Amino acid sequence: MAAGSRNEHRADYASTRERAQGAWIARVEDGSPAWEAGLEPGMRIDAVNGQVLTDIIAWRWEADGEVAELSVYVPEDEQEYACTLEREPGQDWGVEFTDVLFDGIRTCVNACQFCFMAMLPPGVRQSLLLRDDDYRLSFLQGNFVTLTNVSDEDVERVIRCRMEPMNVSIHAVSPEVRVPLIGRHAMRGIEVLERLCAADIEVHGQIVLCAGINDGAELERTLAWVEARPQITSLAIVPLGYTKYSRRFSSSFSDDKDASRAVVRLLEPYQERARRTLGVTRFQLSDEFYLDAELPVPAAETYDGYPQFHDGIGMLRSFMDETDELARDRADEMARVSEALATADRHTLFVCGEAAQGVFERLCTAWNPPLGDGPQEGSSRFGVFTIRNDYYGGDVNVTGLIVAEDLLAQLPQNLSHVIVVLPEVMFNFDAVTLDGISSEEIESELARRGAQVIVAVPSPHSLLDALASRTCP
Length: 473
Known about the structure:
about 475 residues, alpha/beta, Pdz3 Domain, pyruvate-formate lyase- activating enzyme, 3 domains, 6-stranded antiparallel sheet, 4-stranded parallel sheet, 15 helices, about 35% helix, globular
């Protein structure tokens, strides 16, 4: 059973919209079977073929045939009505819902030592404090879950509906390490994961590595455990990230080059065996480890098609290779944008987090040689402006966690003749930053400083497309 389409550029962190319980209809396509049956936005579907709807997965599973018998609630009448949908083979029902979960989100029952929620600044909006750990969002949106809160019925449903791949946070396998690290329900997650593997459900795993806790010998035990389970087709190892509000951590691998290099070296034999026996690397380190270790980012073929791209696995390599593609295949378009900027006497600033500074500088170098004047001394028509994350502090330096407070404090007051390109990943699906400021508010303030503002996906091809559409109509 394939997952539904989703935004491929970012996860939706803490939407500002309230979740409404029930399968409320958001949109009905004109001429569709749902439209012909009289369904309208604002109605609620409570059951399909006698089965209560709990989520979008139940809808897809139960309404898989050419006829669907619905129980529909109409708020205006406060009445429940029977409704029959009929369709041709391959035809879509033509109905969309306000959410993918109809019975509420499953929340976390753990007490992970490294939980980012425990390190948030005071006063953040309530939606950011929702500690979701819902296996359905693992399947639908790629969220990582621990499986510690699933029932036996949930497990059977995953297996029966072939809800794969599942994205599972593993972290450690030895009880003496895993329980103190995650909490008293920790071993339930391993029990469930064993059952999924036994049923041949594909899994993408993750380890958040904490120095002195689940690294070293425990990491080797966890890697060996995963190595023996081929259903876990990829394993991401990401370093603990901490903020200035953490009460437990004040350092991580970002502060220790030798420790980062030791992790890289420890993974190498597992990666080599996987490539030799399976033809894939399988065991993947996040980009931060290579930055922190001051080692080259591996080649693209070692990332196995980037199955864990949105967990920070291979983003830098992908950006670098795409930059090379851009310079090779779209040089004429790049030149036209450069010429248009020169004609308009404008410069472009790409905004990013400190971790991405190097790859953005590579893009600027490929785009245009330095001109010697511009918004920053020695810059070209294309420059990079890195945002230091003072809002979170600690070792937080990724582009997706840039907030409006830092952005507006650090960008120059005079931005005349500047096109500021903001990364789309700093906004959620409601176009709001983590500190609660809308993109419209940010654009208004930057316009007051004289800037033109573009919000774009932070990838070379997307950046070129966005600039070309603005400068070369």
